[in-house]
Amino acid sequence: MGELTDKIKGNANEAAGKLKQQSNDPATREEGAAQEGKGKAQQFAGKVKGALGDDI
């Protein structure tokens, strides 16, 4: 995956996670928190790829 792809997927996962955290179901809130964390990690990976190049 390229830099842009990672950033887009990261933004999507972060947004979906934030929405799930608004749920009344505790399990869904936990899933949302995990998904938001995954999104932040994907965005970070995109930033690293941008800094070092897509060859990593």
Automatic annotation (TrEMBL):
Chain spans, region Disordered: 1-56
Annotated protein name in UniProt: CsbD family protein
